[in-house]
Task: structure prediction
Amino acid sequence: MVHLKINNIPVEVEEGTTVLEAARKAGINIPTLCYLKDINEIGACRICVVEVKGARSLVAACVYPVNEGMEVFTNTEKVRKSRKTTLELLLSNHKRECLSCVRSTNCELQKLSNEYGCDENRFKGEKFAYEEDTSTSYLIRDNEKCILCRRCVAVCRKVQQVGVIAPVRRGFATHIGSAFEEPLADASCVACGQCIAVCPVGALREREEIEEVRAAIADPEKVVVVAAAPAVRAAIGEEFGYPIGTNTEGKMFTAMRMLGFDKVFDVNFGADLTILEEANELLERVKEGGTLPMFTSCSPGWIRYVEYYYPELIPNLSSCKSPMQMFGATVKTYWAQKEGIDPKNIYVVGVMPCTAKKFEKTRGHESASGYPDVDAVLTTRELAKMIKNSGILYNELPEGTFDNPLGEFTGAGVIFGATGGVMEAALRTAAEKLTGKPLDKIDFKEVRGIKGIKEAAYDLGGVKVKVAVASGLTNAKKLCEKIKKGECDYTFVEVMCCPGGCVNGGGQPIQDAYTRRQVDLRSKRAKALYDEDKKAGIRKSHENPAVMQLYKNFFGAPGSHRAHEILHTEYVNRKDK
Amino acid sequence: MAKKLEVPYNGTKEQEEELRAAIGAIRTAHAGKGLTIAALQKGQEIFGYLPEKALQIISEALDVPLAEVYGVATFYAQFSLYPKGQYKIGVCLGTACYVKGSGDVYQKLCDELKIKGGECTDDLKFSLDATRCIGCCGLAPVMTVNDDVYGKVTPDEVPKILAKYRT
Result:
């Protein structure tokens, strides 16, 4: 252990601890801007500078290791002045649209500038001049707001191992861009949106579809259907001041109705439907010697990853559409027919924890009715924004519920939002199909939790299945390499693109670096879903009465010809294109 | 945004293989990180500049994302993503020339050729670089086109000088 004093408070910490972490132990917060725990620890922004007795100059607390007998001062006049000047220099070259910026009140630069009483006009000089990159359907980059902290670069390169962005050029010309400064649409970006989630300012944001959705609601011709993904309910409360990990599903349903949506269904229903199709496909592949292991196909970022980086593994991907697309396809075929509505007049809105979904809805083979399965995708953040600017007092809303029939869901559908959830839901159904009798133990705890790669083996009525679950593309890459080299014999592999699964998706409420340091967003939000599953009356997808009805009246059986036409899709090799 | 690289690629399969082999040798000699710069230097040595293809080869061989390779190549002044033109234009931006207005001459050349310093025109005719003092401060501001030296140049004279080489 190392002993030091921070602002004269004695602290004892392990060797190798940084001054930043040690100060936290002493009850002192040192402000940061470029720092992102475990992801970006580069001491670049100089906001976290502190005085160390005997040191020549101020040091960056986020990377400076503690020494025995060290004396640190975090709040001296010199330190405060330095931080303030650094902030004012950043502001001198920042596109200050703070009044209308999407990140206003949730911006780390704004918060610090305010705390330090900065003069935003102190320095005048040349400013960045970049055009916004609006080339993709899911993300917008505004480099005039970028403070070059490199958090987006680090998450892309280290957490997702995709690395489609990097600092390019030098000095004043430095900016974050893709290779050859091509628009992002020309790079092999998987659309996960993790870069947005870690951006401290408004340089990165999703492409909003709020206006399109409002226009559809206002159109008397259109029947507007909304449905949220499992993970949305576990996080949207954060936008309204609820503690992280609060499930506010009931208020969300009420708010959706107040926004004017004609039907409030639920993508959890689509999740249950996905399980029936996917479990069936898996059993068929096992029986008929199809390509194994089979990969789940719910996460559009993961799909893009395979298409760009491992096209040779495309045959391993389940042909099932994602729950959102299955849901949309079912609304515009089965439900349209049942209600006697022309699918042309149905407008399906998915509310997603995800930015890649904004791309997914534009893929080929995703318009079963002849019209796109899904018309608009709002992120969790966008739905919250709509609720706020509609004058809806979310926290005071009564608990509502979903509409039938395409709103009904089981506990298995709910846990789709967390890593391991799709696997567990599938195992519940596959096990009962294979054994022909009800499960004694419904929980498959081996596949739960935030560990990057989880493995388990089960004997399901004589059929041995080996499964693996990965979240975050670094982990997915490890599995893909093993599979490519034939070093494993998994039957079924679940991959979610974002670390921890959809609960930590790129479309979820943004938490600042300090909160991310203190709280594990992934497990807190996941817990909200597992708690709902525990309380659910029905916890197996194949017992969802609405899904059963759907098969009886429309699809026949899982994997039927009609199910294939409506609920399954195709993939493209994007690497060799 | 930089001018998009539209210079036709004239590299040969042999050069590509040479670069791959060189990277292999670098990897054997220095296991671990920090090989990108060495590989870029090799690439520039082999091709004379760093064409897109060379960056792709380096990215694949070292398993470093292309964006990062490009980032490193654009950070260091020693690397050029553009070939040199048939006529290499140099403008001295040393102290004496600069005081005498070589900055305006340089800017005029950028405007006339529609390129920036370090770049090359699409027809591979002209490339432009800023140079240090070339030792004839008495003639400031000075520009050179290959071995021809022009002294006391004004921005207005730039089109006339270029015209000589355009024919």
